[in-house]
Amino acid sequence: MLYRLFLSLLLVLLGLRIFSYFSNVPNFPEGTHIRINNRVTSEPLIFENSQYFKLYGLKIYLPKYPQISYGDEIIVEGIISKDKLTDAKLVKIATSDNVLIRLREKLLSFYKKNLPIDHSALVAGVVLGSKQNIRPEFWERLKITGTVHVVVASGMNVSIVAKFLISALVIFLPRRKAIPLALLGIWTYSIMSGFDAPIIRASIMGSITFVAQELGKLYYAGRALIFSAIIMIFFKPEWLIDLGFLLSFVATTSILLLNDSIYNFFKKVPDILRSDLSSSLSAQIGVAPILFASFGQFNILSPLYNLAVLWTIPIITLIGMISAIVSLMYVPAAQILLFLVYPFTSWFITITTFLQ
Amino acid sequence: MRKNWFYILIFLCLVSVLVWFSAFYNTSENLKIIACDVGQGDALFITTGSQQILIDGGPDNKVLLCLSTNMPFWDREIELVILTHPEKDHFGGLIDVFENYSVVNFITSGLSSSSKEYQVLKEEVGSSATKVHSVKDGSTIRLGLIGFEIVWPSREFLANNSQKISEIGSDVIGSYTTSRNKNDFSIVSVFSFGNFDALLTGDIEDEASDAVAEKLLQKNIKGIEYIKVSHHGSKNGLSGKLLEVTNPKVAVISVGRNNSYGHPHAEVVKMLESYGLRVLRTDVMGDVVVQSNGISWQVKD
After folding, report:
1. How far apart are CA B67 and CA A274, in angstroms?
2. Is residue B9 part of a domain?
3. Would A171 be classed as within a structural domain?
4. Is residue B154 part of a domain?
5. Rounded mean pLDDT of B215-228?
6. What is the rounded CA–CA span in Å between residue A352 and residue A356?
7. Looking at the DSSP assignment, which residues form a beta bridge with residue A69?
8. Do both A65 and A87 map to the same domain?
């Protein structure tokens, strides 16, 4: 009873928050000349001659240089035309002095310098959710094969990191002490990998799992999912219309609903592949209609592509992370460690670019 | 405990896979000149053994794909990068090259550009450990079995057409400016590997093209096999005189598919064919690869 009351109170608050947000969104008439001063909260997409990002829900295209990165504080001027800022001009750019963001830049440059293109882009994407170095052709292939979710900020990476952290920490510490540290690690990681909706969703859910364990409470994934959606929308109502947010929640929901029955259905599939197959298939079933509606494309073979490459992701993440940590101490050793990732990234790239 | 051994075993397997990977990688001592398919722009990649030279970088990061397919994955060092002249379709991709590779030597003509992208390139080079040199007519470069003889821009041409902007040594990127067309300041060089010679022309236009022909006559340089057609086969690029003097066998045109400039111009292609040259175009063939062992050479189809 108390729980229900609490939940309905929460929903009412959420409704109020959404209402007040959207009624206060500045609504400029077409053609207004405006100047925006804000921090860039996700990594710009880079095209041949331009870079693209969003501020206050406005699509902004700027020349490729000077390059803007996640965390920079910028001032842009332009003219509003629907959801776009046309004639955008960069007035000022101040790079972030946040330690974590600086660290991220350093690590991205380490990957770039030590692996060939595509390979480095893949590692940077998988480990840190960076899209900076992905060539347009490669990006297109990832989209067509339905594997782009592993390269952009993805909840899967967070859960890999969380698992890795907790299993590494319990070697040295009792579980009760390891959990707060793992929590700290997850949130540090989520700041470093660009505060995108899927990452935050996974971080909140991961945190709830850990806290539930610590308090000895039962954990319901469904409840945690709803709870994280509420928290996120409360803090940033514009996520309500964010495609990444929508995809992440729909995918997670459909994994929660369908995974068990699909897993049981594939009795004959060998164990190593079975859980990848069932989870990617169940996620795909959920997101397919959204992908089709928003991009007009959906690949029926996508679960197969995912099946073929998903097993490499934890390995790429692990090698990428360990070599990144070592690179802060001694680069040549880190470079050799990073080379170990090459067979796996080669596999991933060969599979996704094989059938053109 | 047993699990740890299992991981160590996997780790060792992985290491040995990589070692075999590299052992079988073909690092032949033969020469490969690759005109990279970088769209509308120039990027010429030359490799022999474990040495790499890049002449211009195309407009954007497309050049990285060409480098990665023609270099072993563990080699992250390019021995020499030459920028013929500071126009974006030649240097744009170099920004990405400097971000992704260690470059040992960087050679320019010293001509500066005020474009924003060029400032970014300058910063990239400045923050790297790369040695910067500038060259003009008369300079020579040696790298293992490879030699470059620079034949353009000439001292007189520079003296008449440029203004110095910095006195701090001549090895600064961008030590002079010009009010003339930058194309004519392109570094033109004769590249040689054994008996195989190539004329690399940047973007020089007809006037400079004739002047280069004159220079080559003076220096008695002939027997050139390979010519990179200047200015993407533009009408005001390659001159007939240069072809007469050098008498090359194969002409390579680096040009983008359906580019808006109409490059290469039909007249230029016709002229090349009338001199009996085989014309290779990046917009038709993709990467154009010519191989040589220093004695004979062939086009890799």
Report:
1. 38
2. no
3. no
4. yes
5. 89
6. 9
7. none
8. yes
Encode pLDDT of B139-193 as tens digits.
999 998 899 999 988 888 888 888 887 655 445 677 888 888 889 999 999 999 9
**How many residue pairs from chains A and B have C-beta atoms closer than 8 A?**
60
Q: Locate A254 and state its tokens.
A: 């459909």
Q: Is there a contact between B21 and A117 if contact means CB atoms under 8 Å apart? A: no
Chain B residues whose CB is inside 8 A of the A63 CB are 116
Domain boundary among A76, A94, A112: A94
Averaged pLDDT, B118-134:
90
Residue B6 has pLDDT above 70, yes or no: yes
CB contact under 8 A, A48 and B68: no
Q: What percent of chain A has pLDDT over 70?
A: 98
Which residue from B59, B64, B76 is facing A114, i.e. has the nearest CB? B76
Contact B68, B287 (CB under 8 A): no
Tell me which chain B residue has its CA closest to the CA of residue A112. Answer: B100
In three-state secondary structure terms, A25 is coil
Higher pLDDT, A81 or B64: B64
Q: How far is B194 from B175, CA to CA, in rounded Å?
A: 34
B21 touches chain A (CB under 8 A): yes
Name the DSSP letter for residue B39. S
pLDDT band at B198 (very low <50, low <70, confident <90, very high): very high
Residues A40, A81 within the same domain: yes
Contact status of B128 with chain A (Cβ, < 8 Å): no
Q: Is A117 close to B68, i.e. CB distance below 8 A?
A: yes
Q: Is residue A75 part of a domain?
A: yes
Q: For the purposes of burial, counting CB atoms within 10 Å of the CB of A251, is it exposed (0-12), middle (13-18) or buried (19 or more)?
A: buried
Q: Distance from A87 to chain B by nearest Cα, in Å?
A: 18
Interchain CB distance below 8 Å, B120 and A66: yes
What residues in A contact B73, CB-CB < 8 Å?
Answer: 115-116, 119, 339, 342
Query: How close, in Å, is residue A323 to chain B by CA atoms?
Result: 14
Q: A342–B18: do the CB atoms touch at under 8 Å?
A: yes
The pLDDT of residue A153 is: 64
- Residues A85 and A111 placed together within one structural domain of the fold: no
Q: List CB contacts (< 8 A) between A114 and chain B.
A: 76
Q: Do B64 and A117 touch (CB under 8 A)?
A: yes
Domain that holds residue A53: 33-94
Question: Residue B300 falls within a domain, yes or no?
Answer: no
- Beta strand B250-253 with B278-281: parallel, antiparallel or unpaired? parallel
**Nearest chain B Cα to A337, which residue?**
B15
The domain total for chain A is 2
Task: Let me know if residue A332 belongs to a domain.
Answer: yes
Q: What is the pLDDT of residues A224-239, one digit of tens each?
A: 888 888 888 888 888 8
Domain count, chain B: 1
Cis peptide before A314 (omega within 30 of 0): no
Query: Are A85 and A112 in the same domain?
Result: no
* Residues from chain B contacting residue A340 (CB–CB below 8 Å): 11, 14-15, 18
Assign B229 to helix, strand or coil: coil
CA-based nearest residue in chain A for residue B65? A117
**How many Cβ atoms from other residues are within 10 Å of residue B88's Cβ?**
18
Domain ranges, residue B193: 27-289
d(CA A62, CA B292): 44
Query: Considering Cα of A342, then A343, then A348, then A350, what sign does the dihedral take?
Result: positive
Which residues of chain A make contact with B76, given a CB cutoff of 8 A? Answer: 113-114, 335
* ipTM for the whole complex: 0.86
User: How far, in Å, CA of B190 to CA of B222, rounded?
Assistant: 10
Q: Which of A135, A148, A131, A133 is nearest to A306 (CA)?
A: A148
pTM for this model (two decimals): 0.87
pLDDT at residue A7 greater than cutoff 90:
no
Does B151 map to a domain? yes
Chain-centroid distance of CA A299 in Å reads 21
